[in-house]
User: What shape does this take?
Amino acid sequence: MVPMDGSPADGIRYSIGDLARRTGLTVKTIRFYADTGLVPPTGRTPAGYRLYDVRALARLDLVRTLRELGLDLPAIRRVLEREAPLPEVAAAHAEALEVQIRTLRLRRAVLLAVAQRGSTPEEMRLMHKLAKLSDAERRRLVHDFIDEVFGGLDANPEFVAMMRSAMPELPDEPRPEQVEAWVELGELVQDRDFRAAVRKMAEHQAAERADGDRTGLHHALTETVTSEVRAALAAGIAPASPGADPVVARLSAAYAETFGRPDDEELRRWLLDRLGAADDPRAERYWQLLATVNGWPVPEGLRDVFAWFSEALRARLTGC
Assistant: This one.
């Protein structure tokens, strides 16, 4: 510390060495801040050495604190030169840190998923690429899928609306299984064969609507089929056996009532065709993956239910 004769306390001048001891910064760092204009020297000794006053010391202490908080030099300069209020800069930086924290959490989840499933380097790259997409990018990926498979078709509007409302939302701290589910879902909605299969289902829906079907979704009917067939499966009733006759009769009657059609062989042929159009295990997998990503209860698999029902119908239709 170099005092100036006769000056008050706030006229004290500090050498770079004094500042380094007081702040814990290196002499090299203080020189850098001086050269860049962040903390310019207050004056110089007759020999040309830099001197700093208490205001420079306070300024340097602020720069050190902001750097420790992670602010870059341009942001610090704006604060020091009062071009941007410190609260605004701090808020913006906190928001940026939140994004970085979320990214680190995603990377951690990806690494845990890789460790658990023994992924190859290529799988790990894909996993990281898909997992780090933003929420908006994930939604856009699914919306693009829906636009392509249902675009230009008068398919069931309730079903399309349900698909658009159910978007993948990875939490801030996803579990490894959620990352794995999102990666599989991301691959699935980009798969050309799957898109073609869902497009075929949508065309079938549109054809039914063209024939006058405006009945919408059929959750109650699905519950009825599930209940009846699960009971038959539990009882060990084979779909082609006589014991399946009353089950098929009850379900056929339920479909006839729902769709306002006669309960006859034509209805059963239409129903068999309808079940066949939706018989793709990937469609069920789509909803299971979406539920896993979003932390929802995973829906019960119904492929065995509708496989039994289809086989039972087929066994009772001549020429099928």
Remarks:
- The longest strand covers residues 50-52.
- The CA atoms of residues 137 and 309 lie 39 Å apart.
- Strands lie at 14-15, 43-44, 50-52.
- The two ends are 101 Å apart (CA to CA).
